[in-house]
């Protein structure tokens, strides 16, 4: 990491909902460069109403984003544009979701990516679940969260470490990345991000907790149905079902 232009950008976005028409309503960023540290939490208004279901998850209301700037007018956007180059790396938990939401606002990323969700599945497959909040406790990231947050301008107290707060989640993404970095080098984390994970068990539906290989023998039709009928099926689960079939 001797490149003076190298920038690690830890990122999380919260959205107005999960439909294809939904937009970003908050963004958290921690940028770590050789001679620069940047941190920002911003509420933004992309002209899309926040659903009550989304508010129940991220605790952001329509009153809170009233009068807020569009993402393109935010400090976060300016920072991302400034560092939108091949030597920069965006690091996020389920990074493709964040990139898709940024794309919906007109931002096309040209740098590298590390997905802490997929990398954790590769390197710590014995975890029961892989959500950021589960890993926060399973890997004891919470022990360092306050100390980590105090490094940045966005000073947080303990009560603000709540799930689905974009800056709080960004702090945990950085802590998770550093945990993974103790297992594999930076370059390997990038490689693993691009490599499909072979999932052994279902984590939903009537076969939750059962081995996919076992289901492929006794109920092949169910797996074929899942492939055909679940449009937003997790990329790694699709890959795994096709492998076992």
**Main structural class:** alpha/beta
Regarding CATH, which class of the largest domain?
Alpha Beta
Compute the gyration radius: what is it? 19 Å
Number of self-contained structural domains: 2
Strand order of the largest sheet: 3-2-1-4-5
Q: What global shape is seen?
A: globular
Give the name of the CATH architecture of the largest domain: 2-Layer Sandwich
Kindly report how far apart the N and C termini lie.
42 Å
**Fraction of residues in helices?**
40-55%
Unreliable parts: none
Mean pLDDT: 91
Question: What is the count of β-strands?
Answer: 5
Largest sheet: 5 strands, mixed
Number of helices: 12
- CATH-assigned fold name of the largest domain: Nucleotidyltransferase, domain 5
Q: What would CATH call the homologous superfamily of the largest domain? A: Ribonuclease H-like superfamily/Ribonuclease H
Structure notes:
With 245 residues, this protein is of the alpha/beta class. It has two domains: 7-193, Ribonuclease H-like superfamily/Ribonuclease H (Nucleotidyltransferase, domain 5, 2-Layer Sandwich), CATH 3.30.420; 197-245, no CATH class. The chain has twelve helices and five strands. The protein has helices at residues 52-58, 62-65, 75-82, 95-104, 116-123, 132-138, 145-149, 166-181, 186-193, 212-218, 220-229, 235-244, and strands spanning 7-15, 24-33, 37-43, 88-92, 112-115. Strands 3-2-1-4-5 form a five-stranded mixed beta sheet, sandwiched between helices. Strand 4, helix 4 (95-104) and strand 5 (112-115) form a beta-alpha-beta unit. Helix 6 packs across helix 8 (166-181).
